[in-house]
Amino acid sequence: MTEVAFTASATSGTRTYLTHALPLWRRTLLTHEAMIILSVVVVSIIAAASIPRFATPLTLSYLLLDVTPILLCALPVTLILVSGEIDLSVASAVGFSNVVIGWLFAEGVPIQGAILAGVLSGLLVGLVNGFLVAVLQLPSLAVTIGTLALFRGISIGILGTDSITNFPVELKSLANANVPGTGFPLVMFAVLVAIVLFAVMLHFTPFGRSVYATGQGIDTARFSGVRTVRVKFTLFLLSGLLAGLVGAYYTFRYGSARGDNAAGLELAVIAGVVLGGVSIFGGRGRIVGVVAGVLLIGLVQSVLRFMNYSSDVINIAVGGLLVVSVAVPLAFTAITQTVAHARRKTSTPMRAEESQHRKGK
């Protein structure tokens, strides 16, 4: 779906389609998404040139494996933010799924059944969020903060301080396996399929248009026939489902189930989505920008680890990127509006003088 920005005159009712008034090269290259992609390229080149052993297949493998949970969680969160809502509970949903898998497996449940239960546990979190936000119309910020604490507490309550690590070796190997002779993890094929599916869903389907319409104005969307309750409920279910799948991947990627696993993952997810150009106010965003934003977050984290910085410093860097990604677009919009307002004020007297001159003739 191509986003079309327009302004409507209150008196004449004429509309000017701003986006398509620009040349194609400007619409393609001078965008937020293009700037983030360029940033990924620049950071990669600088890191490869200045850090020994950075540009190796092993580093690429670890980088892609590390960003996989962030990217998979970021895809449905992108649609949720575009619809005008937010989901901060993805990390606790991942952790809850991880704990359910470990706990059931330790109790003697076959690993296939434990994985299914873990995925359904993530779906349960999405169901709770969707019911409270879409059906009861409670604020998504308050709801998902609440479910973040709720399901994190349940996870810690199930396992306490215990850690379960005796998972099948073949599943651990599969979760960390690469394409032979490369640093490209096998799990990235599933990630690429998920990216394509969500991109098609958001940009090329009626459902995606409903998501944009809901984020641009929920009342207008309702009067236009969009079933906003169904749209939001579906998005939170998708978020819970992907979180459940990520919980299963997380279990075998790190070979452990703990009550505090995936803690803080929501910061990287939200930072990657917002850094990728998705508006926190809804109605704007593209999957390609989110993918680039998540990769940039992963690159920054990887570079800082190579430089032996602690996890606290890495969290500060990610938080700083989040603040910058929110503040810069708002500042740019404010400056643009101020300049446009100043131009209108200067042009109005000139038009009035020209009109009087014509009347005098």
Describe it for me?
Its main location: membrane. It comes from Mycetocola miduiensis. It is found in: Cell membrane. Keywords: Cell inner membrane, Cell membrane, Membrane, Transmembrane, Transmembrane helix, Transport. The chain crosses the membrane at residues 34-54, 60-81, 88-105, 111-134, 141-161, 181-202, 231-250, 262-281, 288-307, 313-335. With 361 residues, the protein is mainly α. The chain has one domain (57-338): ABC transporter involved in vitamin B12 uptake, BtuC. Helix content is 73%, strand content 2%. It contains 14 helices and two strands; from the N terminus they run ββαααααααααααααα. It has helices at residues 24-29, 32-50, 57-82, 90-106, 111-135, 140-159, 169-175, 187-203, 206-216, 218-223, 228-254, 265-275, 287-306, 311-360, and strands at residues 6-8, 15-17. A two-stranded antiparallel sheet has the order 1-2. Helix 2 runs parallel beside helix 13. The longest helix has 50 residues, at 311-360.
